[in-house]
From TrEMBL:
<dbReference type="InterPro" id="IPR038367">
    <property type="entry name" value="PelD_GGDEF_sf"/>
</dbReference>
<keyword id="KW-0472">Membrane</keyword>
<feature type="transmembrane region" description="Helical">
    <location>
        <begin position="53"/>
        <end position="86"/>
    </location>
</feature>
<keyword id="KW-0812">Transmembrane</keyword>
<keyword id="KW-1133">Transmembrane helix</keyword>
<feature type="transmembrane region" description="Helical">
    <location>
        <begin position="98"/>
        <end position="115"/>
    </location>
</feature>
<feature type="transmembrane region" description="Helical">
    <location>
        <begin position="20"/>
        <end position="41"/>
    </location>
</feature>
<dbReference type="InterPro" id="IPR029016">
    <property type="entry name" value="GAF-like_dom_sf"/>
</dbReference>
<protein>
    <recommendedName>
        <fullName>PelD GGDEF domain-containing protein</fullName>
    </recommendedName>
</protein>
Amino acid sequence: MKKPWLEGIEVVDVNTPVSAWGGWFETFVITAVVIAASFITQQADPFRLSGGFPWAVLAPLLAGLRYGFVFGFVSALLTLAVLGVAIDQQWQAAKSFPLPWAIGVVVVAMVAGEFRDMWGRRLHRLEGAYQYRAERLEEFTRSYQLLRLSHDRLEQTVANSGFSLREGIMHLQSTLDAIDGMTESSLQKLIEFVAEYGALTQACIIGITADRIDTSNVLACVGERFPIDVTDPVLRMALDSGELATLNLLQESEMDQAQLLAVVPLTDSVGEINAVLAVRSMPFFSFHESNLKLIAVLVAHGVDHLRFGTARPSVRRFIASFERAYQDFSRFKLDTVLLRLSGNPEEVRSVHEKLRFSIRAIDFICLAREKDQYVVWAMLPLTDITGARAWAQRVADIPATTAQEWMSINEIDPQRIRSLEQG
């Protein structure tokens, strides 16, 4: 197949064999036509033996130049054979067979044929080299396109994953640290952070009035404002499920009616939907499951931070954080480990003070009471059991008399945490 950049250039495939029958047919036709023309133009001396240019030599010359040595030689033999018959039948006036004339015809045919064969071989080699280079160019072009596409995707991935989820939550908490309450200014900071982290180009947070979406109540926005249709199937799916809804989850018949790419309900850890984040536009390379789930996790943690803040009693804040971690595991399979410490009240209080200054930014700790017994609960989001044990050995010297109980979030009864009392 001819490549687009070779338009207008004749491409010969050297691997395609040329049919010999066409060459022989054309050789016989040329020879016959030239001899017939010689007889028609001068019947008394068709081969011009007595004088003038011997036009009959054109047949071997053309056959040799066109197809090579063998075809030219055969055409010369045919011409000489016809000459012999013509002399024998007295169609051609001659005292005897003109041997010098015959030798000249054969030599012309041989020289022309050899010339054609020599240049044919050279051309064949050039065609082979050209075809090899064309194939290499095509391979290089494909490799270049794949490399460029791979580089673009890598560049986009790197640009879109500058932080881990842990770092994202830490930065979110530091961004909202001095803010308390879900106001328009706090929600504007939240959507700007999520837009930067999740590569959103056009999105808004819409308020809910009397348990219904209020499209006129736009609390925060990034990019150009856009109208919201309450009948949008993505919006309806998010409100019905209370979870992240995206365009690709719709049925094919509903996709044409959707204007939104994704909708994330701003649901706090107690299950109340305070508003919704509607996404209208985002780069194509960012519209994938991992990034959308990342946005949903950040939004959920941001809502909890604005609702419950850090100035609440420690147990209540711990319970709210547990509910969020429990939902993160149920929806997105994000690991969380809990540590329960119990023992002598004085030792428990001492360990609590040590751990309180050693926990990481996204970890939570509280001193609570269980059945008139003081206990310390520590929760380490986005951490498995192995990582949690390593953290405990590194940050604090827990007395041997203090009982330690390690639990993954999927192993604990949520009611056990919900029933904690302030210590």
